[in-house]
Write a structure and sequence with these properties.
mainly alpha, 15 helices, 0% strand, globular
Length: 386
């Protein structure tokens, strides 16, 4: 008996999370589509947007069982993180074996090195670098929940949002000014400070703003989007570089090139509100898409494994280059030394990486559903455990 596929009932946020993961892969293909990216760069908001989505679905009150809450987050965040990281490690080992022709052993102290990376940068292996976000999200949720439970009787979302925004700005200031040796052990707390206001923003949107936002006419939603684009256009004129409104390398709390420490907050709000409005206004045609739903339900798989599938494409190109015919501009030596190489033959070829980076992890997840999941989580077994 086949397991029923997961289906998200909130179609707007289903599509929003699918768009978000598409942007992650698009960004890592050195921009294939660049959806409104000249006005709202992907990495000026897409990681905060994922936290905003988590906040929207996050429910904590004075009756919340914190142990049960932590266990649930452990099951939905850390266990998938560990599983995907182990899979990425195994695939990276095989890819390196194919690239170099020699097995690479595990050096002494490697486990300690990995643990240190997990609790600081957040990723266990370089080929799954984007998985840093899962550790940051787990951390911020486990900070947020007990604070809200303990203060629930006096909790005011708007007051707390102001306090959280202050923490966010402080995290950017510290990241820009602390020396690297002092910054590294503080990376996880700083990322929690950076992301925590977006949890509250998601809750405020759900409880107070969503109905008003949804009720706007199409003309007013279009006007709102144009205003947001204009805001970023004006902002770009006052920054030393237009790209200063973005921030790279959040896993290491780096890449804050803007001279203004409030830039990441403003950029995030503009980007989230723009795409939230666009999704609400124009996303109806995709709300019932089974593929979009499957993408949205499996963002972790795409996030953790799309770089791996870029490397699988490169392994195929390497085979052609070395055994069939030399490929113009293919730098075999660079690829053998880096997981972040791509073939610069044509801008159009980026679409191959993008497509493979999305479909590859989804196909692997489908294979998992049809094999491992059906063996260990059979409906009959689930029914017996009820």
């Amino acid at each position: 008996m086949q397991n029923k596929a997961r289906s998200k009932s909130n179609k707007k946020f289903m599509l929003l999370s699918a768009i978000g993961i598409l942007m992650v892969v698009d960004h890592h293909t050195w921009i294939t589509f660049n959806l409104f990216g000249d006005f709202i760069p992907y990495n000026s908001f897409f990681m905060p947007m994922f936290v905003f989505i988590s906040g929207y679905f996050n429910k904590v009150d004075d009756s919340t069982d914190l142990a049960g809450y932590a266990l649930k987050k452990l099951k939905t965040l850390l266990i998938p993180y560990m599983g995907i990281s182990l899979l990425a490690f195994a695939l990276q080992w095989l890819i390196n074996l194919y690239k170099t022709g020699a097995a690479v052993g595990v050096p002494s102290g490697y486990l300690l090195y990995v643990l240190e990376r997990v609790v600081t940068i957040g990723s266990s292996v370089s080929i799954a670098e984007p998985m840093w976000f899962v550790i940051a999200l787990f951390g911020v949720l486990l900070v947020y929940a007990p604070v809200k439970k303990l203060m629930f009787k006096i909790w005011n979302s708007y007051v707390m949002l102001v306090l959280f925004c202050g923490m966010h700005v402080a995290s950017v200031y510290l990241a820009k000014n602390l020396p690297e040796e002092s910054l590294t052990p503080l990376l996880l707390p700083l990322k929690c400070m950076f992301f925590i206001p977006f949890i509250e923003m998601g809750i405020i949107y759900r409880d107070h703003l969503e109905a008003k936002h949804n009720s706007l006419s199409g003309d007013r939603k279009l006007l709102l989007m144009l205003i947001l684009l204009l805001i970023n256009t004006v902002r770009s004129m006052y920054l030393p570089s237009a790209y200063d409104m973005a921030f790279d390398s959040l896993g290491e709390m780096a890449g804050f090139t803007s001279p203004f420490i409030v830039t990441p907050m403003i950029s995030s709000i503009v980007g989230i509100l723009f795409w939230l409005t666009l999704t609400d206004m124009a996303g109806g045609a995709l709300f019932e898409s089974r593929f979009v739903n499957y993408m949205s339900c499996n963002t972790f798989w795409i996030m953790g494994l799309h770089i791996t599938f870029f490397n699988i494409v490169n392994c195929i190109l390497l085979t052609v280059h070395e055994h069939i015919t030399p490929l113009l501009y293919f730098d075999a030596e660079y690829f053998k030394e880096s997981e972040w190489y791509y073939w610069e033959i044509s801008p159009a070829f980026k679409l191959v990486y993008l497509t493979t980076g999305i479909l590859g992890p989804l196909a692997l997840k489908k294979l998992y559903d049809l094999t491992v999941y059906r063996i260990f989580y059979r409906p009959e077994k689930i029914q017996e455990n009820k």
